[in-house]
Write a structure and sequence with these properties.
The structure is a homodimer of 278-residue chains. By secondary structure, chain A is an alpha/beta fold. Chain A contains 12 helices and 9 strands. In chain A, α7 crosses α11. The relative contact order of chain A is 0.11. Chains A and B meet through α7, α8, α9, α10 and α11 of A and α7, α8, α9, α10 and α11 of B.
């Protein structure tokens, strides 16, 4: 690889859960990290936590970086400020961590040496306090290169992912967006609808147990994040909902019609299929 | 309480997860437990595990009991063998552990001193190896008495529940069945439908993470149990599905129409409501 990204500071824009965790892991390897954040208070707290070597609200902090990771919420990633755009060093590899890739490529694809990527790791926490070491170890880091993607830039981002022990995956953006609609974004709506439905029966609150808690967990998660995912992965999410509705209606028909062998067969298939996802 | 249930052996019919766990907890308190099981191999293994003082496939084992707990699968509970019925001692308090109470009352309500109850505890395990101590501690033990329920018998079952540190709850059977439809039986179908839908996208398997795992856990559970629950709580489950569909369709309409503030509001409500269930 001819881009000396390890020998120059690595820029991280945003020090929330993903940006902060990435910065910590890179620093732990002795790599220099320069972070750009939005608010002065965030910068001060990030310095206290030692998340980066330099933290600033001034985009000039990125000046020497050969690799910049945009660890921003989807809306700010897709509508970047003109100051940020002006501050990205010419020739630097730029990647993102957004959970939807089609709209990211629409916006950033023409940028020189841009690589669309999505490290699929997380906790329920957010903000400057959330970053922690080892978040990416063993987790997928998905890149969605196109014909226009610079192969050297792609190799740099792969090196970054492997440096934090993530599992590298490459696929078309549409495949990624379809998969995350089904496994991440659809469960948010299912869980939220379950909470709403159960909330209408007062006794349900007193009797709910781990089964309900697990099924509803992501549905009771961060509403801003859930809304951004739905907004920017809308078509894939609507398709996922349609597939899901078909499956659920089939199960419901078996219940309504008293087709217990048929229901048992479908539940057996689900039981057999689920371990393939884990 | 005038029924000396602690001074006589306690009968447990079935030594699966619930029966075996109950027997272990009772024995740990020095109470005598007589168990009736279906198969000779189960009896031998139960003796090896020390689940009860006496284990037999002969219904006569229940002869001296003042309290008998029917810890049977729903189908065998609702269609009890004539041998079992003949062996239940005259005057004994009889209770069950079934996860649906309406059909149990239809079948067993006329039985003298019957109390319909449902200890709401569990693990993913089943069978004679599954029983473990402390399963009921802090968990709800729901009784659904009717006007015909013997108050002394109800007090005995409450004493049993409290002996294993369960949390006693009394409610009408219809309220119980509605609540468990929403919090237990509906999640099975949601999770199974999610697994089916996601199974159509190969990449989903490679990328699924804890959110998918949690949302689908009960959907990938024991298919026989899921089918029995649906079968014997059919009307309540269909009502729960209808409520759920209304909630999900409302969320979907907001996604389809791009009503992001409205979606965020609904997800915020779900986030705020969920802790009330935990």
């Amino acid at each position: 690889m001819t881009i000396p990204w390890r020998e120059r500071p690595i820029g991280v824009v945003g020090l929330g859960l993903i940006g902060g965790s990435l910065a910590l892991d890179l620093r732990a390897q002795g790599l220099a990290v320069r972070a750009l954040v939005h608010r002065q208070a965030t910068a001060e707290r990030a310095r206290q936590r030692g998340l980066a070597d330099q933290v600033s609200t001034d985009p000039a902090v990125l000046a020497d970086c050969a690799l910049v990771v945009l660890a921003l919420p989807l809306d700010r990633l897709l509508e970047p400020s003109s100051e940020l755009l002006a501050a990205l060093p010419a020739g630097a590899v730029v990647t993102d961590v957004g959970s939807v890739k089609g709209p990211v490529l629409d916006r950033w694809g023409p940028w020189p040496r841009f690589v669309a990527s999505h490290p699929m790791a997380g906790t329920a926490q957010a903000g400057v306090e959330a970053g922690l070491t080892g978040l990416f170890a063993g987790r997928p880091w998905v890149a969605t290169p196109t014909d226009a993607t610079d192969p050297e830039a792609l190799a740099v981002v792969r090196g970054l992912a492997e440096a934090v022990d993530a599992r590298w995956v490459e696929c078309p953006a549409a495949d990624h967006d379809q998969a995350v609609a089904l496994i991440s974004h659809l469960p948010v709506l299912l869980g939220a609808a379950l909470i709403e439905a159960a909330g209408q029966a007062p006794l349900a609150r007193a009797l709910a147990s781990s089964g309900f808690a697990d099924t509803s967990r992501v549905g009771g998660g961060n509403p801003e994040l859930g809304t951004l995912m739905a907004r920017y992965n809308r078509e894939a999410l609507l398709e996922a909902l349609a597939r899901y509705r078909t499956s659920l209606e089939d199960l419901e028909q078996r219940v309504r019609g008293g087709d217990w062998p048929g229901l048992a067969q479908r539940l057996s298939q689900a039981q057999a299929q689920r371990p393939e996802f884990l």
